[in-house]
Amino acid sequence: MGSSVVVLGAGMVGVSVALHLRQRGLDVVLVDRQNPGEGASFGNGGLIQREAVHPHAFPRTVAELWRIARNNSVDAVYHPLALPGLTSPLLRYWWHSEPERYLKLCADYAKLIVTCLDEHMALAKPAGATDLLRPIGWMRLYNSPQQLETALAEAAVMHRDHGVNYQALDSDALAAAEPHLKVRRTGALHWTDPYSVSDPHALTNAYARLFLSLGGQFILGDATTLKQDGAGWRVQTSEGPVQAEQVVVALGIAANKVTEPLGYSPPLFGKRGYHYHFGLQGNAVLNHPFIDVASGFLLAPMRAGIRLTTGAEFARDGAEPTPVQLARAEPIARSLLPLAEKVEDKPWMGVRPCTPDMLPIIGRLPKRQNVWAAFGHAHQGLTLGPTTGRLLADMMTGEKPFIDPTPYRAERF
User: Fold this and answer.
1) Rounded to an integer, what distance in angstroms lies between the CA atom of residue 413 and that of residue 393?
2) How far apart are alpha carbons 55 and 246 in whole angstroms?
3) 214 phi and psi, to 5 degrees?
4) With CB atoms 3.0 to 4.6 Å apart as the test, which of 49, 53, 113, 266 could cross-link to 413 if both were Cys?
5) CB–CB of 21/396 below 8 Å?
6) How confident is the model over 17-61, as pLDDT tens digits?
7) Which residues pair with 138 in a beta bridge?
8) pLDDT tier at 108, thresholds 50, 70, 90
């Protein structure tokens, strides 16, 4: 195997891949057009989701499809002009969400998810970043006894099958846990395993600093300039061309811009998301991240304030931001918590890179011995970055992979 690698993409996944390769002694250059952690890794719910053994499936009921089709919800919106270009991947997404197929892919997905806490801690400790990983979990709030009962029954199955831990809270216990909620709810499902990250950008940067301290390099550059150079590869950067024997594509939703010229074009599609930070009035606090199920968005305590994050927006590549979900969510959020003014002048927007079968693409590109993929993590790039880094580094260095990589192979598309 070649000992020099260029990793394209400096989000949580790319940084984790670069770090694991450097820990194994390879010469690694990390390249991105912006500084580490400033893409989709910057704006998310800040959760290392140990409970997320079931990925987000495409809605299957007529009622749910009709609700989304009306295009006036908080959790999912779409640009009508984007639908023709999304028809094929969304139909495949719907096909893979058929219950029997979905259960099979959940088993493969869970094999990655169950490792996430240990793999993050294995990097956070030497990076001096354990203070960013708060072991407080997160909550789903319910105002329907039947919905709460159903959720707890599903949680019990997840505990049995995948070791997911949780706690049921009644209305009084929820009020005690979150005394500044302005509403009463029937109860909550508290996922107790996940880490809540107080600053996702800072966590990615901490891993990047560890990579640099071990002798890795980070250079600003343009991944789309990647060209074959003899038996290796060359990419243009702010410091001139960088050459390497192997290349890893960890570019999230932009991955196809690099892989298509190499003959590989998986059916990636994007789910755009937005966030704002708010202050809290007086001495109010929020102790745990939570989703109010009736409202459809996440509120999470962060260093910068209370982060309000949206669900999914489907739009054409390069379309102007349209943060209508934030506009719909803000008054509802203010009815839940005593929010003060916004911290930022304008909202942040990023794009989650999704695959129709909900599994990331991890492994060698078809017919390319020295090009590797690490993208398509959808909602869980922050969660699965270190796991992906370790798995891909095992494969690239000829070690026995600590997880069977077969379900995530690029050849499936």
Assistant:
1) 22
2) 31
3) -90, 5
4) 266
5) yes
6) 999 999 999 999 999 999 999 988 898 899 999 999 999 999 989
7) 191
8) very high
pLDDT score of 12 more than 90: yes
Contacts of 379 (CB under 8 A, 6+ apart): 44, 52, 55, 56, 271, 352
Cα separation, 43 vs 337, in Å, equals 21
CA dist., res. 371 & res. 5, Å (int): 10
What is this structure's pTM? 0.96
Structure tokens at 337: 């918590």
Integer CA distances (angstroms), 181 to 241, 246, 320, in order: 54, 52, 34
Neighbouring CB atoms inside 10 A of 343's CB total 14
Beta bridge partners of 29: 6, 217
Joined together, the tokens standing for residue 286 give 């929020």
The per-residue pLDDT for range 264-289, each reduced to its tens digit, is: 999 999 999 999 999 999 999 999 99
State yes or no: pLDDT of 2 exceeds 80.
no
User: What's phi and psi for 136, nearest 5 deg?
Assistant: -115, -5
Length of the chain: 413
Three-class secondary structure assignment of 190-247: EECCCEEECCHHHHHHHHHHHHHHCCCEEEEECHHHCEEECCEEEEEECCEEEEECEE
- Residue 297 in tokens: 């968005």
